[in-house]
Design brief:
2 copies of one chain form a homodimer.
Chain A: E1 21-26, E2 31-34, H1 40-47, E3 65-68, E4 71-73, E5 78-80, H2 90-99, E6 105-107, E7 117-120, E8 130-132, E9 140-142, E10 147-153, H3 165-176, E11 186-187, H4 189-201, E12 205-211, E13 215-221, E14 228-234, E15 238-245, E16 251-258, H5 268-277, H6 281-303, E17 311-318, H7 320-326, E18 347-350, E19 363-366, H8 376-385, E20 394-399, E21 403-409, E22 412-418, E23 439-445, E24 452-456, H9 468-472, E25 479-480, H10 482-494, E26 515-518, E27 521-527, E28 530-533, H11 534-558, E29 565-569, H12 570-575, H13 578-583, E30 595-599, H14 601-611, H15 613-625, E31 627-628, H16 635-643, H17 655-660, H18 672-675
Parallel strand pairs in A: 1-7, 11-13, 14-17, 17-19, 20-29, 22-31, 23-25, 29-30
Antiparallel strand pairs in A: 1-2, 3-6, 3-7, 4-5, 8-9, 10-12, 12-13, 14-15, 15-16, 18-19, 20-21, 21-22, 23-24, 26-27, 27-28
Helix pairs in contact in A: 5-6, 8-14, 8-15, 11-16, 14-15
Chain lengths: 689, 689
């Protein structure tokens, strides 16, 4: 036992019976007395200090690099320095010559402890290193991938004790990697087919990809240093992929592409219809999306200087229709009530069963679906945003054709989808368009003159700045994108052009010629060829009312009136200004600083599931516990919906918003109520007054 | 509690709180008091009485038929009769009209207990019915197949509680078949792909094939009554298949075919060589054998009036080279020391991974290999003959190009292969040929005149009987088959034509012109065109000495001098006369009645593994415990081998044999010893004296 009071709280490990050297590992702080001559890696392993290795201590992989601390460490009562370790060995020199080794770095598997030492394990040498998801993000991914590479030295066959090569491989793996093996070792058939030549080519040294601690999915002769995984978000419009090193978590390549299913229908329901109208439709769409994924993955692998044969694991998220089509399941049942999924649980299957040509043993993990309209993409958002881990009442919104909504905290989580329709994406808007050069994306309206100033995608200046007219010639002003329509409506409301009930006020034509008569209603002219019509306002009102009614319904179920934190997932959240979203009542009243755009959270969730197997168990459990609400059969939905047609809301005072942004006086016109009847119908709808 | 002293030893189950009716099941003897109105099936299930069902009590499958006992059952103190059960129901009448129901038979799921009853469960209604393997066999197969059919009624999807169809299927299965479900239910991807249309086609009633209590491999709308499995022995020359009903175990069809790999080489080593000489050779041979298996299975299914889509499980056995080629593993390493198998453990894989087109979810189970020369076929023999279950010291011999030898009992089992070469199959014998019409298969030699009489395959008469000359015209006398060569050598020895050391005695030419000079040795003429030469005798001596040395070595390891029971597996054992085998010293000295020809034991073992999942666990465990001996590196092998060249043996007195069969005086010629040096070499060997 140590008599040093500064370390009395950490029990000493007495390794090998000798107690002559004290070693302290940072940052873990673990320490022990070990026998002189112990290697640093050996000491670390016995102490449970987290040092990575693929080659298992053979000075081949270079993963186990450490630094030795220099100086007096009063806290630990020791002096440490280069001399604490044995001299750099020939093996290390050979490694350094061949692969490079930064100044002061040693291979822990080759460095022998000669005197008291402080050993620093840099993050890149830690197995479970924390991966910062992105600068702005408070949360990290801890590396604990489901697949690990292990170099194994296999005993040669021996007539005295005949046993199959696979048995000896499994025995070697269990013996040489006891920390990683968690059960009886099994393997794919293709491993058995390659086993004998690979073992002999590698001179009885092979690297295996060990999945889940018990199943061999890949094998290579000698040392294989890197395999990669790909996290993929299969959206109905676009697909994006992040290719990651399965050991370090580093994103080596990111690629995106249009979903090739678009040729079968722009939105989900038109694809479901295509499947219904064409007997081979579902199979065609499956084939198309798989071919698209193959290209996406091949492209990412090429970008990273690797081949798709290096891809050992992929994770997929997508909405229910994409999920089913990926799996070769006809999405027919998702096209109508009761919107039954074929399968909702998470799935692990061979990537080859999906028709993907990656490493022969590559597996695909698909996140669970939450409900018929709340898919594996929403599960990805939940995993990434982790409302189940906080006390804060959280609202997650992912807007597509439907809005997927999750509300709750660690005590309770509810999910629903709300039929917002495609208006938020610029569809059903007279001047609406996709976010592309020429589209108006930011707008401000002078409350006195009602003159607009705006930004166009592809042009740096605002429309009232010098050089705008010149610059905009290359793009033109072609329409308004989704975030632009939110902003312009917010500004129209704040400047009094539209009333609280969403009527474009014809009286304002007296102030500005930009208010123009349009049949029996009015429109607001933003530029020569871009106007906002009364129908446009109605379309957004319907969409935002559906969204509000959705989250409000879930809040009612939990019996809360306040949300602590709003997370806007997906491209929608990234581009809109939370202030205008709140002015329109698309999100609940709260401090603006608590509204966050999370970007592609679904993809981030996929990446977490790729790099940490615990994340899979976590999201599977979380999804099982989520209460699934079907808005269509909730009687109060319609009531919430009607009230939410007003801007920001008929009865909700939006007090916090009012404190930040001066809102116009609340006046509801009498004629408004009938206009809202049956308001959940979409498209081609005319104002009744 | 019962006050009847005759049943006091069986605790009464008090079902449903009422105790008004006593029911006794035969043959199990289980009994209880149950509430009036309980169905017989329900009572049986609660008592753990073994009654089969696919439909789960819906009067669809007819598997649960029972008879009600009639009369006074003094032992049980009750009177039973037709009136003990409720009247035949309309449902039963409908079943009987549609499917037939033997007189007195009732469906236990529809029969309600009204009064005390003795219920007899006939064997065909028992889940675990005993299947008699064959008339002559003392052992039976208990049915406990790895795959069971279960009809399930699935709850329809509901918007109030959205869940995937698969989740509801799994829940229904667990609830409706609690005895059969043993873990979390999973399924193949193709099940998910079919699930929704099949559920709807079956109006929410589907039959699933449940494998191992937890994995769904097949699904059909409504009631699916039968699936089949196939047990296949893949020999290097012939392949045989038995197609069995997976519920009853009945063999519905048996087929056999040549192994199409024969075109790549007659024997195993020539196929290994073909693989070495031709880069695509192993793949070609795999393709050939798989195509052959597909035909074999298709043929068997057709014979049984079914389709290969009904095949849900297959079991394969074969020697190590066949085993590897089946799996798509190059058998290269099996061609030379140390004869390393790629894999020795048992394997379960998708039949489609092997390239077989059966039911999409069909699995292939492959028995474990014991060692590099002792294959899954030998494991099948062990499973079928079960030396591990007896106290009797057992010797199993399966002769092919190598003899696979297992010796031991429940305490200890050893296995080895011995290089007998192909002489026993008639190869390397001057007049040797395959067992085919025209081949001499039985021989007797008059000890005085040295005149032979013999039987020819395809001819009913012996050669000295009336009508033989006429009958043999159609076949000719074309050679000697394997069993014929054993018999003729045994008779030549018994009649003094060959000496104990295997020399054809030229002195006997004085007695009979059938002893002819042949270069510096002699030969024995059997017919105009068939002779036995000195080289033929030597070839058999070498083979039988290797066989003897093999089992003797294993007996030495166990330290025994006596074998209680000899089992000759395979075609070899079926055709040879144990007496002559013992005269030649091919099997150890023992009572002839304890020598048994077991026929295709390997195939029988495959069938056991097909029909009883416990048999799989048993053979896997047994094979792990078998001590594997490599004869090539055992110093005593050579010594045993040399001594075993004599007939029946140089030092082993074969006392039991002598008591049954008068053996010639034991004289060894001096010249014999040098002739035996290096005796393990094969082929083209000349006598040195």
């Amino acid at each position: 036992m140590s008599t040093d009071p500064t370390v009395a709280d950490v029990p000493d490990a007495n390794l090998n019976g000798k107690t002559d050297i004290k070693v302290v590992f940072t940052p873990s702080g673990r320490q022990a007395k070990v026998a002189q001559g112990t290697t640093v890696l050996q000491a670390a392993r016995e102490l449970g200090v987290d040092i990575d290795s693929v080659c298992g201590g053979r000075a081949m992989c270079g993963r186990c690099q450490i630094n030795v601390g220099t100086g007096e460490f009063a806290k630990h009562g020791i002096v440490s320095g280069a001399g604490s370790l044995g001299a750099v060995t020939a093996v290390e020199t050979r490694y350094a010559d061949k692969r490079g080794l930064a100044d002061g770095r040693r291979l822990s598997c080759q460095s022998v402890l000669l005197a008291d030492a402080v050993i620093d394990v840099p993050p890149e040498s830690q197995v479970h290193n924390q991966l910062v998801r992105k600068a702005a993000d408070e949360r990290q991914i801890e590396m604990d991938p489901v697949v690990r590479l292990c170099l194994v030295e296999v005993r040669e066959p021996d007539m005295h004790e005949p046993s199959g090569d696979f048995r000896r491989l499994a025995e070697a793996l269990a013996k040489q990697w006891p920390d990683r093996v968690s059960g009886e070792i099994t393997c794919d058939l293709h491993i058995l087919q390659q086993l004998q030549p690979v073992l002999r080519e590698g001179k009885w040294h092979v690297t295996v990809a060990l999945r889940d601690g018990c199943h061999i999915t890949g094998i290579w002769p000698g040392l294989k240093e890197n395999v990669v995984g790909v996290a993929i978000d299969v959206g109905s419009t676009t697909m994006s992929a992040h290719l990651c090193d399965m050991a370090t978590g580093a994103v080596l390549a990111s690629t995106g592409a249009m979903n090739p299913q678009i040729r079968f229908g722009e939105d989900l329901m038109s694809r479901v219809s295509y499947g219904i109208m064409n007997p081979d439709g579902p199979a065609e769409m499956t084939k198309a999306v798989i071919a698209g994924l193959q290209q996406l993955i091949d492209g990412a692998a090429e970008q990273a200087g690797m081949s798709s044969d290096d891809v050992i694991e992929i994770v997929l998220v997508g909405n229910p229709v994409m999920h089913h089509l990926l799996l070769g399941i006809d999405p027919l049942e998702l096209g109508g009530a009761p919107f039954a999924l074929a399968v909702d649980s998470a799935l692990s299957l061979k990537a080859s069963d999906l028709g993907l040509a990656l490493n022969q043993g590559a597996r695909a993990y698909i996140l669970p679906c939450i409900a018929g309209h709340v898919g594996a993409d929403a599960a990805g958002v939940v995993l990434a945003e982790a409302p189940q881990k906080t006390d804060k009442m959280t609202l997650l919104i992912d807007v597509g054709t439907n809005a997927e909504i999750v509300v709750g905290n660690r005590d309770r989580l509810l999910a629903a989808s709300s039929p917002t329709g495609p208006a938020f994406e610029g569809a059903q808007i007279s001047s609406g368009q996709r976010a592309a050069p020429g589209a108006i994306e930011r707008v401000r309206i002078d409350p006195v003159t009602l003159e607009p100033r705006f930004c166009v995608i592809g042009v740096d200046q605002w429309s009232d700045e010098d050089g705008f007219d010149e610059a905009v010639k290359s793009t033109g002003i072609t329409g308004i994108c989704g975030s632009g329509i939110i902003e312009i409506l917010g500004e129209m409301y704040l400047s009094g052009i539209i009333t609280m009930d969403g009527v474009i006020d014809g009286g304002k034509a007296l102030i500005s010629p930009r208010i123009e008569a349009d049949d029996r209603t009015f429109r607001y002219r933003v530029s020569d060829n871009v106007t906002v019509t009364q129908n446009d306002v109605r379309a957004i009102q319907l969409a935002k009312a559906a969204l509000y009614a959705g989250f409000r319904l879930l809040m009612d179920k939990i019996n809360i009136n306040h949300i602590d934190k709003v997370v806007l997932a997906g491209a929608f959240g990234t581009h809109i200004d939370p202030k205008y979203a709140m002015v329109l009542g698309m999100i609940p009243d709260c401090e603006l600083e608590n509204v966050r755009a999370a970007g592609n959270s679904a993809g981030a969730g996929a990446r977490m599931a790729l790099l940490n197997k615990g994340a899979r168990a976590e999201i599977e459990q979380t999804v099982r516990n989520i209460e699934k609400i079907e808005t269509a059969i909730e009687p109060s939905f319609q009531d919430h919906f009607v009230k939410a047609m007003a801007i920001p809301h008929k009865s909700d005072p939006y007090a916090k918003l009012s404190a930040m942004v001066p809102l116009p006086e609340r006046i509801l016109t009498a004629q408004d109520a009938p206009a809202l009847e049956g308001g959940r119908r979409r498209g081609g709808r005319r104002r009744s007054s």
